[in-house]
Protein: Indole-3-acetic acid-amido synthetase GH3.9
Organism: Leersia perrieri
Amino acid sequence: MDNKGNDALQELEMLTMNAKEVQEFILMKILERNQATEYLSKFMDGSTNISAFKRHVPVVTYDKVQPYILRIATGLGEGKAMYLLFVKAETLTNSGTPVRSVLTSYYKSPHFLHRKHDLYNNYTSPNEVILCPDSQQSMYCQLLCGLVERHLVLRIGAVFASAFLRSISFLEQHWCDLVNDIRIGQLNSGITNPACRLAMLNFLASPNPELADQLEAICSCGSWKGILGRLWPNVKYIEAVLTGTMAQYIPMLEFYGGGGIPLVCTMYASSESYFGVNMRPLCSPADVSYTILPNMAYFEFIPLEDGLRMSDQEEVIENDTLVSLVDVKVGCYYELVVTTFSGLYRYRVGDVLQVTGFYNKTPQFKFICRRNVILSIDSDKTNEEDLHNSVTTAKKILENQNYLLLEYTSYTVTSTVPGHYVLFWEIKFAHDESPPPFDARLIESCCSAVEDSLDCVYRRCKAHDKSIGPLEIRLVEAGAFDALMDLLVSHGSSINQYKTPICIESGLALKVLNSRVIACFFSPRDPACSMVW
Ligand code: AMP
């Protein structure tokens, strides 16, 4: 017998000797490969556990799988995505060089404008509407398109969660006008952009009182909890960046999604470069890791020896301390440095990442925070993640009383001695009925919970050194953070790439929030503080 024959026999021998192990291995591989499919997720909820498979996956005959086979055979070509995408007006430098945000450049490029309209690129919003430089008109028209084609919509989202939620709150304010346009088949006269008006003709070709009645019934019936699934009944998931500061929007997305629509976070990118993708898009936003795409730029990493206590921007980084992409170590924290085709060399992006594992030979990272320390009064240094974690702990107290924290930002008062941290909170009662009489102790206990979960240096300064005063929460009226966004957009932020600043400094932004404060509360006690560290 030749070698091939021998090898085959040996293989057969090995397989049959180890039937049990081989079977388990094969099942594990099948589950790993298919865990994200619609069918398996229905029973396994993303798990690859073999005993869960045996417990939950039913034994079926052809009639149960036929609908899936038919769907694959006929294709899903008719579906669309309602992605709310916006451009930012471009400016010219003195030398005449156009200045644009990265996404505006992309939306104006042939890649986007002449994309093939397959399942993943077929959007409800026409290009002309996305390219409208007036973001309010663009938002109005994009929502109108999405409502008219509501049964075709399979995916909804925006680049960042903040822009998506902003659009939903815009819908909450303007749905009567949108429904009226659909009812009479005419675009609101407030939409003055000629390209938008032209593009919208197709969507409002004739009056559609039937659709208008359906939408009116949905939008006018009390709570907007779960509204997204009612407006877009075929939607499979909501896609947006949900990590980093965007994580604060997850509860609101879950509120509008009614908990039943998966949240999908696919990419990590910036104006400087595209960085990476999430290879497990259906995982919970808290578990997202990004696999760096090694062909996007040259990536290097500054090790953060001291955990998250990172070096500041001005500090000189020794060239030989940088680590290459493939040499980072699992569990360690790094600051990202890129060298790009467009001419940035060893540029500190400002993001701190933690290595969670490797996909083949490429590392995967969890996004931790922006580098900057954002709040500091004395020797305390609170970064974005510290603050976010403390607020996450404190807001559970609110949630137990049926209040949701919609948005927050922070600020340090240093004009008084000692200075103190201020958090601006916009909160909302989660139920339809009017909230019970407000108890000041509720927010005071949130102040204390934030302080309790800040790090030991903060707690020492507050409780022992008395160099930091009691933490303050300023509750702001509904819409205060929309007003902040309007201000920052009017000052040049791109609505598409807008992120609520985790911290604000003095100036107009502070004025906008302060002028909408309804009540202030202070932490009534010192946080626990051990002097041993
Ligand atoms: P910009 O260039 O204005 O779009 O901002 C890019 C920055 O947004 C990145 O450097 C990150 O700080 C943040 N960012 C982008 N994508 C993500 C993501 N998936 N998760 C967390 N933060 C992100």
User: Anything to note?
Assistant: Confidence is low (pLDDT under 50) at residues 307-311. The pocket of adenosine monophosphate is lined by residues 241, 243-244, 268-271, 349, 351, 367, 370, 497 (CB under 6 Å). The first strand starts at residue 80 and ends at 84.
